Predict the structure.
Amino acid sequence: MTSPSTEMPPRLFDRALLRDRQTRAVKYGAASFLLDRVAEDMAERQQAVLREFSDGIDLGTSGDQVRDALRVSIRQLRAVVLPVSDTEPLALAPSSVDLVVSALALQFVNDLPGVLAQIRRALKPDGLFLAATIGGETLTELRQSFVAAEAEVEGGVSPRVAPFADLRDLGALLQRAGFALPVTDVDRIVVRYDNAFALMQDLRRMGATNILNERRRTPSRRATFLKMAQVYAERFSDPDGRIRATFDVVWLSGWAPHDSQQKPLKPGSAKMSLADAVNKARKDTT
């Protein structure tokens, strides 16, 4: 199993600010449509696994939706928070649980390889990790609109939308952390809004506004926001005038290794070579 790196990863995110904004979002009425959908999908994915789980962890999920959705199929599912400090380990004992789930939380982790390695270590042999994280082309429309607006109005560009990992990178991280049978797939969700300001209001109610450490520390000009909304409407609106916002939910799953699991064939153990298979296929079609 791969151990967490001793080198400090780049601190992309201000996790203390994330906690404050998530608390504020709950106080003023959280927008939970993405989490509601993910919780429903996670229940379906978990129930499709033909085995019982007795002791599980819900890691970092903001809200009770996942635990409510999985309660009927898992004997015990406890909430564990992700630490604010990058140097603080997860509150998980080695080989202590047979299931770890996480919904829409890992995209704001600074040391994702280290966290995945700790999750792998916390699982009992043949334990399952199942998570949904934001990735891919999420909010690409908002990112492009802000870039165009700032370049025109302010003569420069500041980071506003977090960089999200893609499917291939996340799959490689699962392998690096030592998971067996790693699988990744993506669910693209397109949400429509009246305008860009309605989208930004939802992001505030998700606690998902800009927490990049390299974010602008001074207020943006009103003209920049107005230009951003104009660009957004010009480039990413439907015929009815409503705009589109993309959310890519990347699903990750992997198992703690166990002797009972399917193993890849050893090199040279195949009964038919690739060349023989190709020749056979040609003969079968002639």
